[in-house]
Design brief:
5 helices; mainly alpha; 2 strands; two-stranded antiparallel ribbon; about 140 residues
């Protein structure tokens, strides 16, 4: 069983996938920071709020200690059911940015990868009747 596992891990696809997951996780943090710290505050300012991710609707009873609170994270941590549409929009923007960047990377990689050159097509074989006519012509020229 250990030998099978070793063979499985040694295959290039598994190692490539592991590297991709690690780099993807790090890249995801960069995109999350870009979204949370750069883009969403600007979008929030345009829509009249400074913190777009804190837009929510309380759906249940709020404990006495948090009555009147506008802190989304605190309400969620306290177990209050909230409809966090601002957090969802933030994650949707995050996904769109990540998907667009991956699209650009794949597009650039496809341009860099050399396409295999097509072998030049061999000339079509000469039809038998043309070959026969040439032979006849050559024989007539000899006489």
């Amino acid at each position: 069983m250990f030998k099978e596992f070793k063979a499985f891990i040694a295959r290039g696809n598994v190692l490539d996938l592991a590297v991709a997951v690690i780099i993807g996780a790090a890249f995801g943090k960069i995109v999350t920071s870009l979204t949370d710290d750069v883009l969403m505050p600007v979008i929030g300012k345009i829509f009249g709020g400074l913190d777009f991710s804190s837009y929510f609707v309380v759906l249940g009873k709020v404990p006495e200690a948090l009555a009147g609170s506008t802190d989304y994270a605190a309400l969620k941590k306290a177990g209050v059911p909230v409809f966090g549409y601002g957090a969802f929009i933030t994650q949707a923007v995050n996904f769109l940015i990540l998907a667009f960047i991956i699209f650009l990377i794949v597009r650039a990689a496809n341009k860099l990868i050399a396409k295999p050159e097509e072998a030049p097509a061999e000339p079509a074989a000469e039809p038998a009747d043309v070959t026969l006519l040439r032979e006849i012509r050559d024989e007539l020229k000899k006489r």
